[in-house]
Amino acid sequence: FNYQKAHFIISAPDIRHLPPDTGIEIAFAGRSNAGKSSALNALTQQNGLARTSKTPGRTQLINLFQIEEGLRLVDLPGYGYAQVPEEMKRKWQRSLGEYLQKRECLKGVVILMDIRHPLKDLDMQMIDWAVGSELPTLVLLTKADKLASGARKKQLMSVREELANKVGDIRVEYFSSLKKIGIDKLRNTLNEWFSG
Ligand code: GTP
Ligand code: MG
Predict the structure, then answer these.
(1) Burial tier of 7 (Cβ tally within 10 Å: 0-12, 13-18, 19+)
(2) Is 52 in the pocket of ligand 1 (CB under 6 A)?
């Protein structure tokens, strides 16, 4: 699939505003500021495709991008960001939960975590849910450029081991949008999932 051809379809506040629940969607999930939007931009080689920000909580809507007819990537609102009004947090966590539980065409989830702060409670909940739902899952340890290569490998091994012990076999790779690390592995996984 040619990810460079990705284009924006819609920003939706909840699943009722999404296009029909057909085809295949693959969602990018993770804590606020984990680098979800940046990863989508790196994958598609389009810096302005998904909006990124230094301020956590940038992506508050469900953003859909079409790769080709019936195949979509989804930039989900980040979870776990404290500095947001309660009301807003509730609203956006609800639309996130609803999307994950009800969207039939969701066929895979990429869970992104900052390599320096992986496996927080909400990440574990997300991973438990994905694995429990038998949804194909890829965990990306983002901002890998922030660690030297030794530390990066060590962190990768430790996250793999912890997940193997807690939830079983799950794919974990490191990733950097900035230094373009891990993009091939991400692309290969998406290709596999989009091929059904
Ligand atoms: P929300 O939309 O708030 O949930 O955040 P997000 O997960 O979409 O994160 P976003 O892609 O907006 O990135 C957050 C911040 O991290 C930005 O300042 C990015 O420039 C930075 N960032 C993202 N990816 C990388 C990376 O690979 N390396 C480095 N060093 N910084 C990154
Ligand atoms: Mg974002």
Answers:
(1) exposed
(2) yes
Alpha-carbon distance of 194 to 63, in angstroms, equals 18
Q: What pLDDT does residue 82 have?
A: 67
Reduced to 3 states (helix: H, G, I; strand: E, B; else coil), residue 109 is strand
Tell me the domain boundaries of the chain.
3-194
Identify the pLDDT of residue 58.
63
The preferred substitution site among 33, 51, 111, 142 for testing ligand 1, maximizing ligand atoms within 8 Å of CB, is 33
pLDDT in tens, 60-82: 789 999 999 999 999 998 888 76
Model confidence at 57: pLDDT above 70: no
Q: Is 18 in the pocket of ligand 1 (CB under 6 A)?
A: no
What ipTM was estimated for this complex?
Answer: 0.99
CATH superfamily of the domain spanning 3-194: P-loop containing nucleotide triphosphate hydrolases (3.40.50.300)
